[in-house]
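Lesson 9: reading folded outputs for more than one chain in a single document. The general rule is that every protein is listed as its sequence immediately followed by its structure tokens, and records are never interleaved. Here is the first one.
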Amino acid sequence: MSFKTIFKSKLFLSILIIVLSIPAFFFFLKPGNLYWNMHDDMQMVRQLQFEKCIKDGQIPCRWTPDLGFGYGYPLFNFYPPFPNIVGQVFRTFSFSFVQTVKFTAVTQFILAALFMYLLASSLFW
């Protein structure tokens, strides 16, 4: 196999995209780096409430029991549940909520890069 064939291989380009996207999420993975929250960031709370919904048997999860001043809130009618589903995979392996949010963000970086490559390759090649 020649170098040109290897370079045009989709597997090689996919791995190259993942390697090139490492600087975008390396900050999240550095040891000792805590989670930097923002003014409206509630990702850990949303993940906790999603986990409670799943444990209560709400599929699909719609009502969060602890939000809304303790009365409950239909959070997942307004926010998409897919990031929390991805985060629940990490929670299954007993990661903390901070680690879960970080790993979910890293997963989003990688998947966004790969799917943009697939879109661009289908449009331009």
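And here is the second record, again sequence then tokens.
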Amino acid sequence: MNSGFAMTNNNKTNDLSRRYLLALRRHLKQGPRASVQPAERLGRQALSAGVGTLALARIHERAVIALLTSNPSTKPGPRMVRQAAVFFVQMLAPIEKTRRAAVASDGHLNRMNVALSLRTAALAAANRRLKQEIVQRQVVEKALKRSERHHSQLLKQSRLMQEQLRRLSHRILSAQEKERRDISRELHDEVGQSLTGINLTLATLKRESAVNIRDIGRRIATAERLVEKSLKALRRFVRELRPPILDDLGLIPALHSHLKEFARRTQVRIRFKAFAAVEKFDNEKRTVLYRVAQEALTNVAKHAKATRVSVSLTSLPGAIRMEIHDNGKSFQVQRAFFGRRRTRFGLIGMRERVEMVRGSFTVESARGKGTTVRAEIPFNHEGQG
């Protein structure tokens, strides 16, 4: 019989010891402002289980040793020691209160009856306060539910507006691209032909007036140079708006021409790799890839101070990936996209264009590794692969 009672006490002590270790560890992690209520609860449980003060001191000692040995690198500072001592003292508080009450009640039964009456009154008051708090909590819960429904409605409206803005952005980009195409065609077909005709006429006049009229020849030569300069500017303007080669010959020749001109203008070495299947994309997707490459190279020329750039078009299962990598200066991608002062609006435009055709757009930039712009566009139901 005594053996069974001892085993029961040991089990209670071991269980209390485990719970005390966990509670003390949490208390120490929370810092000086941690609540001591868990310690008081453990003290009341120890009191109910009949665990004495000496046993509690041993439990506390074992817990502290366990915490130190579990992390040998941790040195017990004065703050940790004080915090652990406060926790232990708070666990003893219920036992100390019980002891004092027992001492006081030994010879003062009347005072205990008075205290009991006061306690009953206090409990009644606490019960009334609890009922009031329950009512208040129910009111708050109803208000929270109404607020949650309102928040859900606002969230749906926000998502709807975001989708509408995205569609509007896509329509604007499409209209912008169409307008560029029309202007490019008009400049190329009308203005370009007119300037070419003027240049031919001036060349003829120069030959006819070459006999004696030197001043006319010089003026005509000057006019020829101006027209030639205008033609060069016109061709550059046409290429930047929308190169006719993109519609006439395809994406790869357009990229090759743009990269060649970029290398000539910037002295940056270019490496280009592509495969013919990219031409199976529809016109909209080929335009998106061209604009991504054009804008990425513009950023390289303005910001990167790079000496080498590689542009590649590779095949993926059901998609095509374009990568533009440079060996220039890096930058903080998140700040460029989401900072208050967005200095790289071209990145946002590239992302919008790629998402317009259901693709994905990413940018990676790291010190010493340069920047990589990556766009992946699916074939969808075009039937290519």
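What the second record shows: The first helix runs from residue 2 to 30.
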